[in-house]
Records
---
Amino acid sequence: MSHALILLAHGSSDARWRAPFETLEHDLRARLETPAVIAYMELSEPSLETRVAELYDQGHRRLDILPLFFAAGRHLRQDVPAQLEALRTQYPQAALTLLDPVGQHPAFVEALAGIVTSRAEA
Amino acid sequence: MSHALILLAHGSSDARWRAPFETLEHDLRARLETPAVIAYMELSEPSLETRVAELYDQGHRRLDILPLFFAAGRHLRQDVPAQLEALRTQYPQAALTLLDPVGQHPAFVEALAGIVTSRAEA
């Protein structure tokens, strides 16, 4: 199945808040063969629903959703699973997987520790 | 001047949301000689004001505040600078510095790209 990745950020009506996510999406496009696109949970477009529809129309059937969050709160434990249930009903041929938030990935914690260490010892 | 680091997270009334930050604080304590403590902007304690008071009372005069955020929105551009102004008036002998959010640090972006790459190619 053709595979694509959706990077799910919180979203903001402030374009300056969104800018680093758009930069990240741009940088990842240059590095990956697999399509990777940004979606926002609220306050800005494109939404998760918009991105799933786009990728499905492009023929992708395996869609992984990676939350760009430090920790899982109500959004990731309740709102997003409910959105995914609705999307699975709408697209029964798509395999939609919600991954753990990046903040819980060891590589992320290591990077943070490195930043803190370099700053603490400056 | 004795130096300490405050890791500033958004905060949540949900203890499960806070758990990864408390784990991070614990891990960093074992790795750093400089004190590093977590503070929350809202919805949970300890607040930034609580941490500044504690560290000041312990004799620390150079306090760096590292926001555990992906991007700077209203909180980091308006609310936190206003809190810091009030704290600087209250503690004129302390040097309080607000650092860029960790999400804008190159090491962080690299770690994220690595996570995404390993997942996209799985």
---
Amino acid sequence: MELTFRDNVRPSDRDHVRRIVAASGFFTAAEIDVAVELVDERFAKGSPSGYEFVFAEQEGRVIGYACYGEIACTVASYDLYWIAVEPGLRRRGLGRQLMQLVESRIAQRGGRKVYAETSSRPLYDATREFYLRCGYRESARFPDFYAVGDAKVVYEKTLTRGC
Amino acid sequence: MELTFRDNVRPSDRDHVRRIVAASGFFTAAEIDVAVELVDERFAKGSPSGYEFVFAEQEGRVIGYACYGEIACTVASYDLYWIAVEPGLRRRGLGRQLMQLVESRIAQRGGRKVYAETSSRPLYDATREFYLRCGYRESARFPDFYAVGDAKVVYEKTLTRGC
């Protein structure tokens, strides 16, 4: 498949993000709204919003994206807020490519740490394995964070020069 | 000293928050701006902003405050974003009173977990001791989070009924 990647955000990305995040089956309605709000924030405020995006397109169709940004009041730490790929197109390394692109963008900006968080629920087993495969380590676990029995797991990666 | 506490936010609180947070000596210019932005957000959007406040007043003067809010996409987890007391009025249990008030408000809303974060730097030794005295436990530590050598330390407390 021929893939292209872009950083700029377009008004239509609102719908692409909603479609991809909703189709993933991993997120609640409230979480989907948050994903779309970040696109709106970026579109309204530009770079000062603190949200950066990478979109993956195949023949003009957005099939995956990632959203990241510098963590306020830190020197070089970044959060990976979202990474999602269209369900039918998983297991082809697209998530990995998006991740590598995000990390290289962060490294270019002088970033040193990347954090990503997800849930301890079995639904997110593949997500947690994905972070580990991408070289992240589990750096914290907060029991009962999302709900009773649903912990927040935080992953962390230290970027090296030229990463 | 006769203390009163209030939850409602007034336009003048912007300046009170800036004064108290700046005078504390604990926060950078960027962090002070964030503290004031949360007041603005609350004033502009009301409760949907997600930011709740408690102000402590003595003879009409705001001498301390706390800001907290439910964490998006969680069932009953809250962040304590800010807690600060005028420097000349510390060591009188005011921080503790603010904390207890915040925790009782959170418990009234059905909250179960409270999280607070601070830095590992020696400047924040008293802050970390304060959380421990208030019954919080250190639940995570992220090395080099704020900057190289400056870890983020996360404290957590599980509220019990009637707390």
